[in-house]
Amino acid sequence: MITRRSALSVTLAAGGAALTGAGLTPLLAARARPTTRAAAKAQTVEKFRRPMPLLPEKRPAGRTGKADVYVMTMKPARAQILPGPPTDVLTYDGHFPGPLIRARAHRPVIIRQRNRLTVPTAVHLHGAAVPPGSDGDPMDVIEPGTDRVYHYPNRQPHAPLWFHDHAHHLEAENTYRGLSGSYLLTDATERALPLPRGAYEVVIALRDARFDAGGQLAYAMGDRARNTLLANGVPYPYFQVAARKYRLRLLNASNQRRFELRLADGSPLTQIGSDGGLLTAPHTTDRIALSAGERADVVVDFSRYPVGTSVVLKNTTGTGPAEEIGEILRFDVVRTAHDPSRIPARLRTLPPLPRPDTQRTVVLRMDEGGEHPGAYIDEKEYDPQRVDARIKFNTSELWTVTNANARAEHNFHLHLVQFRVLERAGRPPEPGESGLKDTIHLAPGETVRLQAVFDNYRGRYLYHCHMFEHGVRGMMATMHIQ
To answer: Which of 67, 140, 252, 436 could form a disulfide with 290 if both were Cys (CB 3.0 to 4.6 A apart)?
Structure first.
């Protein structure tokens, strides 16, 4: 568990290195080492014995003008994740994972975040176009015992957003211990479509974890032994469904694990959206790949199965024993139901991209080998005092982003804007990446080309690898839209 003492140690280490990651990595790595054999051993969990809960929906505390006002408290809690003693977690409003906020485009949301933890926090609404003061800058923290008000104008199209901690050097462990939640932004375009809704639209937050022998979350920097998979905070649950279509809003809330999701019987999945909302047209596939921070909007038609049938959602990639990381949750078809929903052949229209005003390159690299590997963007560790990219407001830029590592995976997240993927490894993007994105996976040695329009807000924002431990080690940079 992060303590106030450890947070102060991190702050002092950062200050001693001129607020870069250079002096910090050894401290974090030293704190990360498991102290006992028991701490390194995950508990065995019997699969498909507990139901998958729905995320609790957060309701506004009131309204001011046209804005919905929320009050949310970050506080420690105990969650019944494993059999036996409950697990200590960090939460929004006592929920693990955090709650779901439903918002509407052009209807602002104001959230008073109350930090009742012992460590600083910063709340980032991932995928949102918000003013810089509400973006959750890593250095703009909420100190323990204090509050901060975040303003979310929601002046953007529909998108499955999520919020998580972003306090510098603490975001990886804070988020791992529970500081994440979901935020579904809808608009008239989305609401006009006859897609599954109500009880048949389900948010599923996926992640991995490792537990010690006492049932507590074990945190270690870059830990590759997080082999217990959770869906909405429960390991390997079942979820009862009707024999009809369901809209599954999938989020990879892991610190660094990538998922490749398939139904065990090979049945098709219809992807209708990604990070930035609906695709232009549905895409039928047998797998959905999600790196850390990515989202996918998927329709599964369970009417193909007789009542009494079960089908497992499998994961087919990543480190760990197949019996631990190969299955995530089980869908149990328990009843019939009327289904007026359908998937239109056309979902939305995206405007054509303008001719880019500027092109730039970004190189992601991490040291491969050594006890305390550094992580870099353009061979620089993150320094919050430095501006790495100056961007003219209301222009469009084409970014060529490369993973320079031979073995390490990365991904890439832009704050403030959604982007369009133009190429992956010299080829057009796959259909699932053809819509609006804010986070994208890069395999070792891979290059992607993407284009974004910077027409929302002026100010400083981050771009970084969204594998949290890579960002903590220095793989973050600052852009200034002027």
So the answer is: 252
